[in-house]
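Quick start: read one record
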Amino acid sequence: MTLTSWRTFVTVCRLGSLSAAADELGYTQSAVSRQIAGLERELGVPLVERHARGVRPTPAGELFRRHTTAALTEADRAVRAVRDLRDGAPVRPLAVGATPSLAAGIVPVAIRRLLDTAGTVPWSLSPGLSLELYDRVVSGDLDLAVVTDAPPGLPDDPRLERRFLGMDEMVVVLPLGHPLAGSAPVRVQALADQTWVEDNEGSAALLRQHAARAGVTARIDLAAADLPGKLALVAAGHAIALMPGVLGGALRTDVTTVALVDPPARGIHTITPRRDPHPCSAPLLDLLVTAFGASRPGRAAHRPAQAGARERD
């Protein structure tokens, strides 16, 4: 049992495909299959199972994935530490994760301010969904992650420190020229006949719950692979979408937003390990608080300038 086969297995689980893992790692698909089969022989249990879209870990495979991910992270850190010492630059890299909307908004701003004050710090930023980032902080792969408590929510873990940054109200993103562009806050009932597009289940769940409370159904007829894909479908006039308000300042120029009456909201949190936190985590947390606070007044720009504008219903 080698670290190479462990790394192959973790890559297969992450990508959900033997062929995609082979492409990423530079192996043939048969070589990947042999490594997985070798692990299964040594452990005496199946680690992956096939489904319509590829492969996924079995319950035993998921357990093995969690432990191997942590072991590989520590092995990579050991190699980096020795190489940094050899090269005379024993600076511990800062690994940050964030959900796509936060990775495109407040997190780069906070990291820029950190570098301006702390000097040169090796760093990386990895986008991902909240639960995936949560697992990566637990395993030690990330030093800090900025996540949301959108459905299905965040687990409690005594190994992690969670800090609440604030609530982010969702807005509706529309193509330019949409009849409701420039409106006062609208009720979701006014959008009941619209086609919606979503890119992840957390945002879709917020939309469904908000619509259900108003007694209507949101027609989520289109799906996008990611946030840029969702915005591209809106810009082309195929649909409208729910979007984090915190992303308002980073919108493409061919879409606009309208606020909702009593909008759905999600909490924004940072998570860091309680044990051996990165030295830059504490100052970055403070800068994230500042960046998030600065992003919130910008949402007013999406509302009409007239103080007496009536809500649309």
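The chain has a mean pLDDT of 87.
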